[in-house]
Amino acid sequence: MDYLLLVIGFVLLIKGADMFVDGSSALARLLKIPSVIIGLTIVAMGTSAPEAAVSITAGMAGNNAIAISNVLGSNVFNSLVVVGTCGAMAAFKTSKDILKRDLPVNIVISVLLVVLIMDGLLSRGDGLLLLAGMVIFIASMIRAAMKERTADEEESEKMSPMKCLIFIIIGIAAIIAGGQLVVNSASNIALALGLSQTFVGLTIVAIGTSLPELVTSIVATRKGESGLALGNAVGSNIFNILFILGASSAIHPIAVEAVSIIDALILVGIALMIYIFAKTKEEVSRPEGFVMVAAYIAYTAYLLMR
After folding, report:
1. Which of 27, 24, 63 has the alpha carbon at shortest distance from 235?
2. DSSP per residue, 281-298
3. What does residue 158 show for φ and ψ, rounded to 5 degrees?
4. What is the pLDDT of residue 37?
5. Count of domains observed in the chain
6. Residue 61 lies inside a defined structural domain of this protein
7. Domain with 91 in it: what CATH number?
8. 247 C-beta neighbours (distance < 10 Å), count
9. What is the pLDDT of residues 34-90, one digit of tens each?
10. Where are the alpha helices (H) located in the chain, listed in sequence order?
11. How far is residue 220's CA from residue 94's CA, in Å, rounded to a whole number?
C-alpha cells in the first residue's frame, strides 16, 4: 500500500507543480512583477508547506531530531539537487537581484543558524529572532516587487486573475497533498527497512518534503522560467530557516545534537559554493549542475557512514 501511495504522491506533485508554475508565472505577468520575485515569495512559501507541516508538528511534539534535521536536510537538497538538476538540464543565467541580495542573505542566515545552535539549543528567543528576520525579508520582497514592475510585453495567452488564483490554489493543494503522501509512505518504507530516525529525517523526510521544490523548479526550467526555478530554491531555503525553524523553536525550544551543528556548517559551505557558481559568468553551467548533484551523493554517503 505504501508503494501505491508513493506513486500517487508523485503524480500529485508533478501535476500540482505544473499548475502552480503556470498560475504564478501568469500572475507575475499580470502584476508586471519579475518572475524571480514570485519565485522568492509565493512559490517558495507554497512549495515549503510540507517542511512547515512536518517541522512545526514535530516541534509541538518535542521531536527535536525531525524538526531540525528536516530543515537542514531539505536545504542541502534544495541547494545541491534542485539547483544542480536545473543547471544540469540547461545552463541558465542568474538574476542580478539574486546575486546581490538573495544568495548573500541565504549565506548570512545559514551562518546565523550555526551561531544560534552552537550552544546546543534553539531557544524561543532564537525562534522569535528568526521570525523577525522573516518579516523583514518579506517586507523587502514586497518593496522590491513594487520597484521592479515591468512593462507587459506579452499580450498573448493571458490568464484572467481568477484563473491564476484557481491554478495556484489547486496547484498548491496538490503539491501539499502529494508531498505528505510521499513523506509518509517513504518514511514507512524506510523505517520498515530498519533505518534510524535521524537518518530518515535528513534524507527520506527531507527529500520528500523538498520534492515540491524539485518538481516545481524542473517544470519551471523546462518552461524557460529559470529565474523562477533558482528563486524558488533560494527562497525556500530562506523560508525554511527563518519561518519553519523560527516557528518550531518559538513553539518548543529545540535541543540540537552535535551532528546537526556539523550539518549546519556543511550547509554554510554549500551556500558559499552556490554563490560562487552563480557569480561565475553570472550563470549556473551544466558542469556546475553535475558537480552539485555529485556533491549531494557524496553527502548522502557521508550520512550513511557516520
Report:
1. 24
2. GGEE-HHHHHHHHHHHHH
3. -75, 145
4. 67
5. 1
6. yes
7. 1.20.1420.30
8. 19
9. 666 665 566 666 666 677 767 776 666 666 667 788 889 989 998 999 899 888 888
10. 2-30, 35-38, 44-47, 49-60, 64-77, 83-89, 96-97, 103-117, 124-147, 161-192, 197-200, 206-222, 226-239, 246-251, 258-279, 286-305
11. 14
* Predicted pLDDT of residue 32: 73
C-alpha cell at 13: 506533485
Contact 83, 218 (CB under 8 A): no
CB 79 within 8 A of CB 270: yes
pLDDT of residue 6: 80
pLDDT of the residue at 231: 76
Within a domain: 170: no
- Closest by CA to 228, choosing from 17, 30, 72, is 17
Task: Tell me which residue range forms the domain holding 225.
Answer: 36-145+182-305
Tell me what pLDDT residue 154 has: 47
pLDDT, averaged in runs of 10, over the chain (306 residues) = 84 80 78 66 67 70 72 91 88 81 93 95 94 89 67 57 89 80 75 74 77 78 72 84 89 86 95 92 89 94 85
Cα separation, 263 vs 102, in Å, equals 21
Give the pLDDT of residue 62: 64
Rounded CA separation 117/27 (Å)? 39
Measured CA distances, 81 to 4, 57, 61, 270, 293 (Å): 25, 26, 30, 11, 5
Cell, residue 105: 542573505
Does residue 208 sit within a domain? yes
Is 23 a member of any domain? no
pTM of the model: 0.76
